[in-house]
Records
---
Amino acid sequence: MIEKIRQQRGLLLVMVGVGLLSFLIPYDAVMSLFGNNNSEIGEIDGQSISAQEWQKALQDREPLFQYQGNEQSLSNDTWNQLVENIIYQDEYDALGIEISDEEYEEITFGELLSPFVKNTIYGGKDSTALKEQVRKSFDGMDANMAENWKKLIKQKRQKEKYDIMLRKGVFANSVDAKWAFKAANDKVSVEFVVKTFAEIPDSTITWTESDVRAYYNKHKNDREYRQETSRSVKYLNFPVQATSGDSSSLRNNLSQLAADFRTAKSDSLFASNNASNPAEAYTNYTDGMLPADVEARIKNDSLGTVIGPFAHNGRFLVVKSSKRGVDNNSVQARHILIKDKATGKSKLDSLKNVIAKDKNFEEMARQYSEDPGSGAQGGDLGKFGRGQMVKPFEDACFNGAVGALQIVESDFGWHLIEVTGKNFPYTKVAQIDRAIEPSSKTVKSAYAMAKEFSINCSDTASFRLAADTLNGGTKLIDGKNIRPNSTSVASLTDAGELVSWAYGAELGEVSQPMMIGKEYIIAALTEVKEKGVPTFENVYDAMKAETIKEKKAEKYAAMMNEGSLADIATRIGAEVKKAENVTMRSSNLPTSGVSMTENTVIGACFGLNTGTMSKAITGKGGVYVIQRNADITVGESVDNYQSDLDRTTASYQQKAANSVFNSFKEAAHIEDNRYDRR
């Protein structure tokens, strides 16, 4: 091999030169040099998104949320935010929707938290203490990360303000309200005969492949058949599970560590150096953290006792009781906040007297506290440490006696404080943990089995045949209509690798083993759909079913156009049925035996004249003949349609934002090339 390298040293020098050059030349330039024109990630409303812009957007967003390696979710969230920003920007500019730094401060740390901030950063809660914690967190944050948070919060607030303006500009009028009332309250009763498609055997119908092709040519552009880009796969899994030998080996290793743990000079250092999760290697013990028998020993055995190894929640643990003491650095308290500094103290003086007498702090907090977060909890702030509250509040809590009522002033207003707990006893435990996982030998064995399977299956036919014989028959799992931005496939979560493979594979291709979660997956690509008009093959089954249904309708409609309802029923082997109190909102005739939505049939019930019988009506679920024998019973509003006006307006407003967003997206002609591997 060395001799061959010497012989080709000229080529080697060229390759090394190209490699060095790649560090100096921009990525896009290198790609274009080699003829790769796919450096654009996509286009949104005419605005091109370059690879560099995309990488920058990913890098800015990733630290803000705990994606934990879920690249698919990171990609989707980043793309969706780009789409939202770009398609709305012209609207924001035209309407003058801007977010000043002062407004940013208010919606992030002030009295009027934005919905996005409250739900995303505050977890849906709202309290003075939380706001202080969040502000300190932001103040101590990396400057670039803090700026990205600020940018995202402002963008989300623009969208919130736009949606609010949109909803406020949408309403129903009196005609809308009247028709909403009529649709729900006008009623009609009919007699009818139906021959459902389900009760007509397919074997009684004559059809040909050319009939299906003709149906396809006629309906391929129908909205219900238009398709989005997707892939479908069938896959099987090879679980990678720890064997009894793996567990035994792990237990023996921890037993050896336990012996050294007993004599370790520093429990915390020894545990953190040997634990798989160093952050939790030395911690305060809390009730219920470990099994009852272990907990009893931690509380009652002498300090330094080493317990384990024992299995708990899929892990082996060795635990040592390391230290017992009293916690002087945290307190538990509750408070009532009055924000008005001019009148707050006098109000709290009165409340203090009432509480001292009636011992009803919780009741008074719920009624009078202006801290929305803790007020609903009877003023309870839970346990907190030093540095988490503003200074006057903290000093009162740490210096005050348990049960004493104190009134103090802070930047937020006046507080009536009661310390409910301090000097908490604690036990520190040091713990070494190991997940009960398969050994490398077990993983290799599972991979070898999966690899052998994939080698023997080069196409979908052999793939299915091999699955039928594997372990006496292994069920293949369907992953249907996988979109490019999917993060899961059937029961698989975090299935980005499988999605990526599906969009790079050829139809009928069988994958190499992929490790997803704790199992190897082998997949076969069974269907490819591109956006737009479907191929005949992709919709063949659906078109065939509709062709047969159409033939059934033709046959029975011809038999149902003459005679009375009784005659028709006898002729087709059915019965005359009644449907009472049908409204325009009814999805079908309740006694028909059809569960599909039959708008044409319901419309005919209201469109017929009293005493007349319809011709045969082809619905979604069967062929009908209807006779209406009485006039429509007209409903009467008791409030001149006001409640219907309110409900209809609320419905319109609820749908407004999503409807406009979807319209903007459709008009923007978005091209998403994130998953284009050509």
Note: The longest helix spans residues 642-668.
---
Amino acid sequence: MPKKDASEWQPDGRGRYRRMVGWIVSAGKRQQYPFYFGSNLDQAKARLIRVKELWAHLNEQQTRAPAVGFPPTLPSGASEPYSWDGEALWVARTLAEGNVHVAVGSGKDELPDQYAARLSRLGERFPMVHFVPEDRARFDGGSAFWRKAAEHQVEQIRHMPVNVVPEVSETLHEAIDKYTAHIRATDLEPTPSGPRLTGFGNCKIEQALRIKERQKDQPLSQLDFHGCQTLLDYWRLRPLTKARRKGGPQRPMTKKTCENHVGELLRLFRWLSKSKDFRWRKPEDFDDLQTNVKDIQEERTSIGFLQVRVYDRVQLALLNKYATPLERLLLLLGLNCGFKGAEQGTLLVDHLFLDRPHPNAPMLREVAKFHCQPDDKFILYSRNKSKVYGEFLLWPQTVAGIRWAVARRDEICTRLGLADRHLLVTKQGQPFFRRTEGNKNQSQIFSNKWDGLTRRIRKDYPEFPAYPFSTLRDTGADLVRHAADGEVSAVFLCHGNPVRKDNLLELYTNRPFGRLFKAIREIGEELLPVFEAAPEDPWEQPMQQYSTLTKRERMLALSKSGLRPSQVAKEVGVSKMTVLRLLKKHSAAND
């Protein structure tokens, strides 16, 4: 294919025209810099001419001495080829965007004489760009000051072009870059392998970079009250999502996503105001900024909040019937204790009270009026997210599952020579709840296993809901609320402020664990049909099957009725070998 001619103008994937003009120094290397000139070809060509003119002018000024009385604008006598500096690059970007007249504001703490001097210096350096002082009174006052202060500057100030902009040594994108570097250096948590960036720190960095991607660069001097409000309003008004790869329609971003980015902007402003690296300070009316994110019409009229999605008894029975031993344990811990992935993944063997009595059984009996039975088993746990303390009476089915998990963990740790205390570990000895290899996101083991179980059920029951793993927690809380009340349900969910774990009186009078235990025991009796739906040996690992459970059950039933394998295969719609393999496996399992 012949090489594209440099004079050809071809838009990029977003319809913009791009050209390389000048050079920058990045990471110690000198490389060409790309400018985007919009999506109109004629305008793009005109803007390119203006940027090239600016580049040529700055190259000519490379060795010129600085103006008398003002700070140097370019290196004097420099031997290195000229590269875009921050100030010139900002002016060039402004020209590339098609701006001819640029309104310039003054800094909050900037005196009139400083404002005028800054405008004069920039006007001299960029004579081909038109600038308009935003604060005309301050500009005129500064000009008058220089006329009185220095006679030799009178002519300069009087004839100073009004097409002047402020010095751009500090910009929004530069601030975001330093803000993310600050997060990487401070939002750390201790780990056995050393300090590591927290999950929330990763989230803040992603949000800050998305703000940088979505909102154009600008001088920090423009971020007065109205400038800050403009940045916030972009997210308050729910910008559209990016175009989907498969051509789906763009929609306003979710309210939660926009609220998170509004919060990140506020954190950026507060950090920036305290930073020694920047002169920007919060405007006086900073606390009056509007931060509420707008609803869209369909959200205002929605009634989805009226009901929480939960599993009913029939659906729970199907989940227990189709589950593997590990999936069954996740199901039971979610229902019995309201545990999501973070709680199940951080559950340690130290939290299990299976072969030892409840440590505070006398207090439970005297204060909570709950009598621990000899066969009662418990989990005592502080929630990973909020550190709120919780206690849970375990159903016999849950106890059996936990004992299976302990044996599984012991076998893995013994084989690998590990001393891990987590209840749930992978076959490679890694905790279920962990960061991915890139140390960025949490592992999706729980979601993946739950999605796999749901898919198997939906092959036989297409109408089965594809709820997320967290629905188990909602289902357990819903059962507790109907068995007791909202207060006990909140205790079940470990809501509220953390309690002092060494203050038993506060612990057992303010948090009614006795009532919670009674509710859990009552729910366990109501769920007996769900537990009975499991296979004969719930903790035996099933063999790999390529037919759905419903088909396998039907094949076994037809075979027991006296049909030959070929007749069963024809009736069910599978091959004869599939029937023979199933009968062989079933016979071996029963021997």
Note: Residues 396-416 form the longest helix (21 residues).
---
Amino acid sequence: MKSEKFYQQLDMLFRSGKIQEAERYIRETMEQVRQDNDLSALISLANELGGVFRVTGRLEEAKKIYQVALEAIRVLGLEDTEQHGTTLLNLASVHSEGKEAAEALALYNMAAEIFSKKGLSQDYRMAALYNNISHVYDLLEKADQALLYAEKSLCIVKDLPAHEVELATTYSTLAVRYLKLQEEAKAESALAEAERIFNALPGKPNVHYAATLNSFGDLRYRQQRYAEAVSCFERALRILTENYGESSAYADVTRTNLEKARRLLAPTKSSDRVNLNKDMRMTGMGLSEAYFNEFGRTMIRDQFPEYEKYMAIGLVGEGSECFGFDDELSESHDFGPGFCIWLPNDIYRVAGAQIQEAYDRLPKNYRNQYRAITPEGSGRIGVFSIEGFYKKYTGCTDAPKDPVEWLFAPETSLATVTNGKVFLDHWGAFSRIRSGLLAFYPRDILLKKLAARIAMMSQSGQYNYERCMKRGEAAAAYLSCAEFIKNTISAVYLLNRRYMPFYKWMFRGMDQLERLKEIKPMLERLASVPDTPSSTAAKAELIERVCILVRDELKNQNMISGSDPFLNSHCQDLMSRIEDPRIKGLPVMFDGK
């Protein structure tokens, strides 16, 4: 058997999803090596065929063929070799798939002992073994042990070069373990990393991506986001059937999950439909990603394969859906299926218009949503140059390099270009700039902006509000209170190292901040209490309490040293810590926003 030619052909069949042809090819080659009495080749072929049997749910056949491999290993005197360990690992996976945990664990331990003796403790095979042991402990309902071995696997794989698929698969496994422990935030983070890696791979979706989508569907189902769960399961099923056929065991599991989610999207009683309407709604981000996966991927792959490697694709920018704040009311205008394609400027000049034309031909209706765009909402989706997109909002074609550029980049615009989600980025330039912006302001700029914010908080809230009320100037007091609230919100975002979105979403975005959470309801109280003589003292006291909380957080972050509750007294302390003389010499209240 000419192994190089054989495996090239086999790999091509697997990549094309021709699983039945691959099985026939392996069987025919096995018959040939049997006749030649080539036991070494027989071991490799039996392992390949066993893998086919396993993914198509024929577990008993898989066990038998792996026993053939083990017998050949015994005859050739290859016990305790890497080949022996790999075969044991594969056979153990079949027992694991059949929920025969004790048998699987025993075989995995035998394989682990062989790999350790051979100095393979940091080899991918050991990582795969740990991943599989994690699955066995999951079967045994030992969640902590299952998580431990998934983490061991990740520690090995993330340091291995050219193992992107294995790394993504390991993140997916880790997410499943987190879900078992009800740690949904950690699961979502792991799945997002797996998805990022899979989406960056060239060509058609990798078959292992289906497991990530299945887990994402499970997560969305738990979160009662049923429409997004359906989308995930549908995409997973499409990948599985393309690769393994309609009758594969994996496809059957996914189909069951899909039907379960669909039932909750189609309640039988009209009253149930009303009650579930909010829960089953697909978010704008989910709609965008599903639309891209269903139509955008094919459009790009079929019509612009030569430009695909330069593209970043996602949904970032203006619109409530980019911040994750959309609801049913958001659907009245500038909402619906769509996504962004960002290209380097030189590629955009050559092909941008052509790609935009193809984008415009994509279906306008998707999942009962039609994007009705107003003049004010145009230009949010479609094809853009990377440099042009960032310059439109920040004034810079890249992340600012100089503190002065940072100072004059509008705060809310920085929130706009760092929100949303990048589905994939082949070229990497868009994400590189985005990462630079997400790293947040340089310290000098942070100090300068905080000095300006607490100066305005002190002036408008601690000083002018009560004076305006004593003069009977309720309108001026109202504006003073509004300035205080606005500057306080900005200070809270700054102290959380997050960019503040524009005024409509300032309050809503505070729910996502970790520090000074208690300030939001206090500011809501300030905004709702009328400016009357009877409420002046209470509002002034509330303003003072807010200022004290901000002072304490500044001290906690080692930005000031004093304890005066009057915030203006700390402005010079903040300014004195600035190193750049151009920024240090600016007036306290100056801010390039």
Note: The beta strands are 312-315, 340-343, 365-366, 369-370, 382-385, 421-425.
